[in-house]
Amino acid sequence: MPTHRPNLYERYRPFRRRTEIAFWLLVVVVQIGASVAVAAMDVQSSGREVAFWQVLTWELSSQFSLLALLPAVFAFERRFPMDLDHLRQNLPWHLLGSVVFSLVHVAAMVLIRKAVYAAVDEHYSFGNWLVRWPYEFLKDVRAYALIVLGIRFYRLFMLRLQGEARMLDEPEEPASPVQATPQAPPVDAPSPGPGAAARPERFLVRKLRREFLINAADIDWVQAQGNYVGLHVNGHDYLLRATLTDLLGQLDPARYARVHRSYAAHLDRISEIEPLDGGDARLHMRDGSQVPCSRRYRANLSQMPVAVVQE
Question: Domain count of the chain?
Fold first, then answer.
């Protein structure tokens, strides 16, 4: 029996978070080195009497403040994504966000500088905020834009690496009743109500310039991820541009149920339900993965013929 060979994304996934953190730390370290060198040369060329520790304090306070703000920018961009579909809608939010970003950045670096200067019995003055802050904002808005742009390029790269799925279009109606007979649903199958969405049987996945099909029935569980839904299929993850609610409205309700605010599971793929404190549970799937189940949605599993792990 052939063994599964992990692809590039599967090999990268265990190191993804550490790689992302290391990348931004490296960016900040390089930026600190370049900024300190440029500031030192500017001081030397101007003939001012400025100690090196002061130059170092100025640059380190600025870069460390920017580094501390990165998680907030990541979260804000997830909430208001700057993709082509939402650019016009979310651009005003990011313009406002850049102002808040700059105010917090400048306030943080000024506090750090004052603390360092006070530690050596010196006094630091930022100057007139009405004059200095617009100058700092022009630098901060460029930094903010570069951070958001870097996030978008990285997410596009991850989409290509991980694979992006879309629902296949519905097949055209047959031209005659004779052709329609083999495709007619069973007599006992419930007919969809008026306005009900057609259930997709397959999804088309594009991944690294390749296209292939996955069956809707092969989806083990799904997870909401911002403007996407992650489809977990046979140990692989693919992203679908949809909300969890919209996707569940198009999947078979006899097979799929919401088990958490951000998760839904294929009921036939659950092997065990492990109760947790507070009424929550952990679902053990047949492929070895685990899915959280909140107390609010445990009622969806009340009729499931699956094993329950006793605490």
Answer: 2
Q: Residue 190 CB: number of other CB atoms within 10 A? A: 8
Instruction: Quick: pLDDT tens for 57-94.
Output: 998 999 999 999 999 999 998 888 887 767 889 999 99
Distance (Å, whole) CA 153 – CA 156? 5
3-class DSSP state for residue 80?
A: coil
Range of the domain at 240: 214-308
**Mean pLDDT value of segment 49-64:** 88
Q: Please name the helix (run of DSSP H) or strand (run of DSSP E) that holds residue 287, with its range, or none.
A: none
Query: Does 250 map to a domain?
Result: yes
Does residue 250 share a domain with residue 142? no
Q: 147 and 223, same structural domain?
A: no
Give CA–CA dist 203/207, Å, rounded: 13
Phi, psi for residue 97 in degrees, rounded to 5: -65, -35
Q: What does pTM read for this prediction?
A: 0.61
Q: Which residues, 6+ apart, have CB-to-CB distance to 77 below 8 Å? A: 94, 148, 151, 152
CB 43 within 8 A of CB 50: yes
Considering 123, 138, 162, which residue would you say is the last residue of a domain?
162
What is the identity of the amino acid at 299? Answer: A
| Mean pLDDT for the stretch of residues 208-222 | 82
Q: Which of 225, 263, 241 is nearest to 166 (CA)?
A: 241
Q: Look-up: residue for tokens 């649903």?
A: 185
- Crossing angle of helices 87-119 and 129-162, in 10° steps, is 120
Same domain for 155 and 239, yes or no, is no
pLDDT exceeds 50 at position 3 = no
C-alpha distances out from residue 302 to 216, 253, 291, Å: 24, 15, 17
User: What are the pLDDT digits (tens) for 253-262?
Assistant: 888 989 999 9
Considering the domain architecture, whether residues 14 and 81 belong to the same structural domain is answered as yes
Task: Write the pLDDT tens digit of every residue in 216-248.
Answer: 888 999 998 877 888 888 878 888 888 888 888
302 and 237, same structural domain?
A: yes
